[in-house]
Design goal:
The chain is mainly α. The chain is built from 13 helices and no strands.
Length: about 300
């Protein structure tokens, strides 16, 4: 991974989004390749479950033996899918976070290097993700507002685990510190960290919904064609040939891997924006560049 000094300065919401788009466009193959690994693995793991679901549609109601076997197999493959997702999802998210950070700082990194650099932090990423999910989930059960509060407090937990190499609980505390610090006046102003994050997430969510809608069009068209006008019914899904269904799944896998980075890139840039405003990270990097000293760790960040 080569190192070079990059333009680090405080950013508003518009600039975070603009630089995120520029960063993705200039590093599309790397970012896309990182998440494509995750999406392809999930696509492969999901195939036995999809085949079983098609089998349910063709099994006669009066055949309890076959139904029982398929229910057991379906539960087993569902559990396997969940376990695989618990491992490869944080692995891919961590690798993408590392790659985005390196490219934002002007350093080169490949897909293989990103995964190699994140493997040793995988147990922490998994544990941190589970802790955040539990805390936020409990918060949403307590009349919604606590869940929203916890969600924004721990929004940067994964970023902190990857870039500062902190343990799960320490990363959650660090994320809370960064999100709550008043880098600018006015907690509810558009310039506060929580407001920035909320607006960025809303924009990304709207974009994702639009892309998801577009992704359903081929599925609707295929079901309509093969089922004589029906869509989203068991009969319509069963009428689609397996080969066509696999082709649609492959297309959705590619599109999903292409869209997913839009959520991670702005969060990494938000993390750096907070550190630049709160901790003078830009001056720290400039000092390293002028003194020609190497970064303290593989990702180029000192633990604060």
């Amino acid at each position: 991974m080569s190192q070079e000094f990059t333009d680090l300065r405080p950013m508003g919401i518009g600039e975070i989004l603009d630089r995120s788009i520029q960063l993705y466009r200039s590093n599309f193959s790397t970012f896309f390749g990182i998440l494509l690994v995750v999406y392809v693995l999930m696509f492969v793991v999901n195939q036995p479950l999809l085949i079983l679901q098609r089998g349910f549609q063709s099994t006669e109601v009066g055949d309890p033996a076959q139904v029982g076997v398929k229910v057991i197999l379906s539960m087993a493959f569902s559990l396997m899918t969940i376990l695989v997702a618990l491992v490869i999802t944080p692995l891919g998210q961590g690798a993408l976070t590392l790659a985005v950070s390196q490219r934002f700082l002007g350093r080169r990194i490949s897909t293989v290097e990103a995964y190699r650099g994140i493997v040793r932090r995988l147990p922490t990423l998994i544990w941190a993700g589970l802790l955040v999910a539990i805390v936020v989930g409990l918060g949403f059960m307590l009349f919604l507002i606590p869940g929203i509060y916890f969600y924004f407090c721990f929004l940067l937990t994964t970023v902190v685990v990857v870039l500062e190499e902190k343990k799960a609980t320490a990363a959650m505390g660090r994320s809370k510190e960064l999100m709550r610090v008043k880098t600018e006046k006015g907690f509810w102003s558009f310039r506060s960290n929580s407001s920035k994050a909320a607006i960025i997430l809303l924009i990304m969510f709207a974009l994702n919904m639009a892309v998801s809608f577009i992704m359903t069009i081929p599925t609707l068209a295929v079901q309509y064609y093969y089922s004589n006008g029906q869509v989203f019914t068991p009969e319509a899904m069963a009428a689609v040939p397996v080969a066509v269904e696999l082709a649609l799944g492959a297309l959705q896998t590619l599109l999903g891997a292409a869209v997913a980075p839009i959520f991670t890139i702005p969060l990494v840039l938000l993390y750096y924006d907070i550190r630049i405003r709160f901790e003078g990270f830009d001056l720290e990097m400039m000092a390293q560049s002028l003194s020609q000293t190497p970064a303290a760790s593989e990702v180029g960040l000192d633990n604060p």
